[in-house]
Amino acid sequence: MEKKEMEVVKGVELKRYMGRWYEIASFPSFFQPRNGVNTRATYTLNTDGTVHVLNETWSDGKRSSIEGSAYKADPKSDEAKLKVKFYVPPFLPIIPVVGNYWVLFLDDDYQYALIGEPTRKYLWILCRQTNMDDAIYNQLVQKAISEGYDVSKLQKTPQSDPPPEAEEGSQDNKGIWWIKSLFGK
């Protein structure tokens, strides 16, 4: 049975979408530490209309981060389908890894979001706060189910309140987890 095309949010105002988002839950992916906590993304609008992406996570007290850029897959479309490009590894040779970032749900106040991509292998529930109301969480999970996701794979991401400062645990394993994961270490 062919899964239907995913419904993507239209007309997202990128300016309002910028700032910090905390990962409330996600499908475990090979490019994040298994035991990562306080995982978050910070988006900053560049002058050329692209978005600077900073992903941070802490594992065993150490901060790992990776930077990339996001841009609209089709500048003429009003659908919130972005491409995110990271450079892996963070030293030579540089291989850009490009992924899809589709906004499947976003509330009117830009406080929580459901992010997926066309293969349905990845799913993220993001929030401006470090914790999310259960009713909202369940609403986003239902939306994911309606878009054909296997939500049994969703894992909640531990978030501490208040969140760590960027300087905490600053032995910065810049992108090291990518390298490890690529080689299955």
Structure description:
- This protein has 185 residues and is mostly beta strands.
- It has one domain: Lipocalin (Beta Barrel).
- 13% of the residues lie in helices and 37% in strands.
- It contains 3 helices and 9 strands, in the order αββββββββαβα.
- It has helices at 14-17, 134-146, 176-182, and strands spanning 19-26, 37-45, 51-59, 62-72, 81-88, 95-106, 112-116, 123-127, 155-156.
- Strands 1-2-3-4-5-6-7-8 form an 8-stranded antiparallel beta barrel.
- Strand 3 and strand 4 form a beta hairpin.
- It is globular and about 40 Å long.
Write the SSE topology.
Layout: H1 14-17, E1 19-26, E2 37-45, E3 51-59, E4 62-72, E5 81-88, E6 95-106, E7 112-116, E8 123-127, H2 134-146, E9 155-156, H3 176-182
Antiparallel strand pairs: 1-2, 1-8, 1-9, 2-3, 3-4, 4-5, 5-6, 6-7, 7-8
Family: Belongs to the calycin superfamily. Lipocalin family.
Domain Lipocalin/cytosolic fatty-acid binding: 12-159
InterPro entries: Calycin (IPR012674), Lipocalin_ApoD (IPR022271), Lipocalin_bac (IPR002446), Lipocalin_Blc-like_dom (IPR047202), Lipocln_cytosolic_FA-bd_dom (IPR000566)
